[in-house]
Amino acid sequence: MTDTSSQPESSTVDGHYCGYCGYALRGMSADQKCPECGVPVQATLDGKLIWHVPESYRRRLRIGLWMIVVASGLLLLWELTIRLVDATLHDPAELIGPVYGPIRIVVECAKTLTLSVGILVFTSPTPYQRQASRWTPPSRLCLRIAFLAWIGCWILSQLISLYLTQTIGQSVILYYITVIPVILWPSFLLLYCASFTRQLGRRWLAFSAIAASVGMLIIAILRYFPGYVLYDLTYPHYEIVASIRAVLARFVPIIVLIFTAQLAFMLREKNNPHRASGQ
């Protein structure tokens, strides 16, 4: 009885589970480490879990984020180039001639490959997630599934367009099968970014990322909404709505670029409070 009463209640973290491996921290104090994975108990309590993983993992996150930034920038640069050429000649092929097709294929493949590797690296598990972790946010798995589904659908659509003759109905069905993961993965990417910004103590940025993910979902739905249905719903203002839809669609890579670049800067080691304090 004496031993139990002599230990203050505030010194234990009963009811908490390790933020990385899910181990029950019953009876442990905040200055101890989880006996299962070795992560400080304080990491679970203060919520800034990202600074307690190995630095090599944060470096991997930054590499993945910068690859996503490069892919988004490449997409924006390509679209800007096409718009500028189209504004002068109304047909990019007039300027580039037979080279336009191969250039477009090279840019598309470079963008898709960089984006694919970047997302796979960014969504790689932490060292602790290999031990039946409860820390993995659902957005990570959803992002991987949606993105891989998009890559699979994109490859399938390219093969079908090259080797098979399609009816109009089949083309429409294939188009919308491909579109569904395209609509979803940018939103899941921002939700996954929000899970890190929340750990970094930037709750306002996490809320902004969540709001942006919802906005991007709405923009993507509007972008790929069937034109004839939109025409019936918005007539006689269809041209205005179509122009707004086209402008909003260009914000998707810009939003992705802004949030991923910002998170990459926030994950730099010089922002690590433990390194600054010599821990």
Protein described:
With 279 residues, the protein is an all-alpha fold. 70% of the residues lie in helices and 0% in strands. The chain is built from twelve helices and no strands. α3 runs antiparallel to α11 and α5 runs antiparallel to α6. The longest helix has 35 residues. The protein is elongated, with a radius of gyration of 24 Å. It starts with a helix and ends with a helix.
Helix content: 55-70%
Main beta sheet strand tally, sense and closure = none
Coarse structural class: mainly alpha
The number of strands is 0
**Could you state the order of secondary-structure elements as H and E?**
HHHHHHHHHHHH
State the assembly state of the protein chains. Answer: single chain
Defining traits:
mainly alpha; 12 helices; 279 residues; disordered N terminus
Brief write-up:
By secondary structure, the protein is mainly alpha-helical.
Q: Which secondary structure elements does this structure contain, and how are they paired or packed?
A:
Layout: H1 2-6, H2 41-46, H3 55-89, H4 92-96, H5 100-122, H6 138-163, H7 168-199, H8 203-224, H9 227-234, H10 238-249, H11 251-266, H12 273-276
Helix pairs in contact: 3-5, 3-11, 5-6, 6-7, 7-8, 7-11, 8-10, 8-11
